[in-house]
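If you are new to this repository, start here. Below is one unmodified record pulled from the training split, so you can see the exact layout before writing a loader.
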Amino acid sequence: MPVVTFDYDDLVGLIGREVPMETLLERVPQLGADIHSCDPATGELSIEFFPDRSDLYSVEGAARALRSFLGFEKGLTRYEVEASDVVLNIDPSVKDVRPYMVAGVVEDIVMSDDLIRSMMELQEKLHLTMGRKRAKVSIGLHDMARIKAPFTFKAVDPRSVSFVPLAKDEEMDLQEILEKHEKGRDYAYILQGKDRYPLLVDSEGNVLSFPPIINGTLTTVTEETTRVFIDVTGTDLDAITGALNIVATAMAERGGKVRSVTVTGLHDLVTPDLAPRKWSISIDEANKLLGTSLDGPKIAVALEKMGYEAKVEGRQIHVLAPATRLDLIHPVDVMEDIAKGIGYESFGTTLPTEVTFGELGARQKASDAARQLMVGYGYLEVTTLMLSSPEEQFEKMHLEPVETVDILNPISEDHTCLRVSLVPSILAVMRRNKHRDLPQRLFEVGDVMVGCKRAKHIAAAAITSRASFTEVKSLVEGIMRDLSVRYEIAPSSLGCFIDGRGAEVLVDGRNIGSFGELHPAVITAFELGHPITVFEMDLDALTEGKLERIA
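And here is the target side for that same chain:
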């Protein structure tokens, strides 16, 4: 979870009241957070907020929430947004590169050192969490004194534009930034495979930003900055508008005046939109969910304590929620805040009224039974990663590729997809242990993704100087006998087996697995040098309808 570090004096200054450190340490967890660390000597307070409360990732957002929660200002905090003459044009060229951008302006802001540090930390926390390391959302702040509206967001050739990026003193084109700049190398994967890169420029062609990678030094925000342009780009319009609202209101908490920007072109908007979001809550449903018997006025008071505006009408409560509360997706989310506003300590404690005992699920029973059988047959269990690669799953196994679940931003070439078979993982273990004595007999009971659906498989491999089809056939028949499964065996044409030494296992006419002697080409592909026999079967299908007997 994100850890946000505050200066105690700065926090209470924004709250507007003196709040003892002891009170903060006691009440902040009740808001939905954990105290990470506290240093009374320096006044440094680190709070670990729950991932859903991105509006609290700054000292400004935390102060706003605490003002209501501690009873200093109840109800909804409203921010006035006046129109400005600033226009942002979204060129259609960005549609297939980074399709969305919204923006706002904050004027008459005093950019103190505390505010600059707070905004930098807020950006990074939003980038890391809701921004998915900038792939989904990226945020930029710019000093408007050095640029001229209207602004244009467009896609350009990577070699056609050069500018001086942050933390550098020489011009680089966009491709050079991805290759040489620290941030460029960190986030280059986001633009991988793109022919053109996104760029934000002003009316005179000055570069503000190369989103989502890096801003230019031209618009660096300093303590002399009084007018800030906020840009947010990404792949999800709701996410970037929410991020803009959080940043703009944080700066408004410091006295800044929020001004709107007219977005035209690929999409037409006026942002930021800080109008409250409407919810309707049933008093009866809230009481049923919370196990309480609260009346409407008490629920309204609890909601006001959590920063809402609430009005009771009959058995319904009409609620206005802040535009920064991106975590609200269902009425139960508002009901959860009712519990926080009342105080969890008010619910009391009771002992359970019924005695219950846990029980293994059906799939786990089957897995445990299969493990006991394999250990009895003399096999050693291994547990491997579910991550694999097409090369290991198909090329080395001499099998035709099938649909896989691919990893969007893999950290290595060996872990680019979710496996569809356990056998390659077991063979990889044998490769790492080929210096060990033979025979080696390994098995695994694990998850695979077949047809993009999770399934539980059992697989085994034996490498010996005399491994043969007869040996693995006897093993499979023993398993089927011990599980009392009626089956048939049919020839297999899979390319991983030696011709005539592979077979399929059929249950009720359905293929649930295969076994056989691996082809020499497969053995050498895994850098092994002795005969290997393997089998793999769908454990769910194998034990279907037999779980009670197995247990």
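Two things worth knowing about this chain: Residues 113-128 form the longest helix (16 residues). The chain has four domains: 3-69, 81-271, 277-347, 362-550.
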